[in-house]
Amino acid sequence: MNPYALSMIVSSLALGTILTLSSYHWILAWIGLEINTLAIIPMMTKTPHPRAIEAATKYFLTQAAASALILFSSILNAYILGEWSINSPTHPISATLLSIAIAMKLGIAPFHFWLPEVLQGSTLQTGLILSTWQKLAPMALLLQLSQSVNLNLMLTLGLLSTIIGGWGGINQTQIRKVLAFSSVAHLGWMLAILKISPQLTLLNFFLYILMTSTLFLTFMFLNTKNMYELSTSWSKTPALTALSMLSLLSLSGLPPLTGFMPKWLIAQEMVKQNMIMFALLILLSTLLSLFFYLRLTYSMSL
């Protein structure tokens, strides 16, 4: 790709996210999200392969639909309450529509179907941007909206995401699809605790970005796209393989590692709120994800 075009696209990506992060008006936030969506599409179609074009089309359609829903619900909110600012109390109907639209943008179950397909169709570099940078803006909006959202809706979407994220990843051999389902499961955890403690959502989000970036960069360095290619990595780069195994186990939330901390704190907060049954269910759904992380770890250690 032409370096000038690439610099334009990357700066547009940055601009879109920064615009959404710094906006207090729904229209401005919407413009930021649109710039973000339009900037990533040329990066996805950089390799003119049918899979890449298909991925870009799917991504564009879902993001456009979600953006339209955000615009509609913010206009509805302004019509009912006469209020455009993001951090002011939102009307319940608008808040529900907005949380559904943002869930579509993030790829939270049951709006997750586009995410594995899109990640599989794009390169690891684009996959890294999609899994980390592209989630910053919608997550910021969701955090500002956290006090207006419907608790039952959030809990339902969260539990569904952790179960589907675990279930979907079990049968996969493609690393990008596994990472997509892992993303769905992690976002489920963030959504479940969003209304009760937004600070924990933020902590979980930052740790998720850190560990996912580590894994994507490792796989880019090793140039592996499925599990079978991973089994040769130990002989090539033992130190890096050992580190990425630890990152995988951390992402799955095993006790001595970083990824355990947010899960523990979230479960603790839920028990404090007397949601013991829900905490049990969401922790059991993590076992599904643990299975495919262990599978990846095992194939790396061969």
TrEMBL record:
Organism expressing this protein natively: Rhinella crucifer (striped toad)
Function: Core subunit of the mitochondrial membrane respiratory chain NADH dehydrogenase (Complex I) which catalyzes electron transfer from NADH through the respiratory chain, using ubiquinone as an electron acceptor. Essential for the catalytic activity and assembly of complex I.
Protein name: NADH-ubiquinone oxidoreductase chain 2
InterPro entries: Complex_I_Subunit_2, NADH_UbQ_OxRdtase_chain2, ND/Mrp_TM
Membrane topology of this protein: Multi-pass membrane protein
Predominant cellular place of this UniProt entry's protein: mitochondrion
GO cellular component: mitochondrial inner membrane
Cellular compartment(s): Mitochondrion inner membrane
Membrane-spanning segments: 59-81, 93-115, 151-171, 202-222, 234-255, 275-294
Boundaries of every NADH:quinone oxidoreductase/Mrp antiporter transmembrane domain copy: 23-288
Keywords for the protein's UniProt record, in alphabetical order: Electron transport, Membrane, Mitochondrion, Mitochondrion inner membrane, NAD, Respiratory chain, Translocase, Transmembrane, Transmembrane helix, Transport, Ubiquinone
Signal peptide start-end: none
Any single biological process term in GO: mitochondrial electron transport, NADH to ubiquinone
Family designation: Belongs to the complex I subunit 2 family.
Domain of life assignment: Eukaryota
Catalysed reaction, written as an equation: a ubiquinone + NADH + 5 H(+)(in) = a ubiquinol + NAD(+) + 4 H(+)(out)
One Pfam family per UniProt: Proton_antipo_M
A molecular-function term among this protein's GO annotations: NADH dehydrogenase (ubiquinone) activity
Enzyme class: translocase
EC number(s) on file: 7.1.1.2
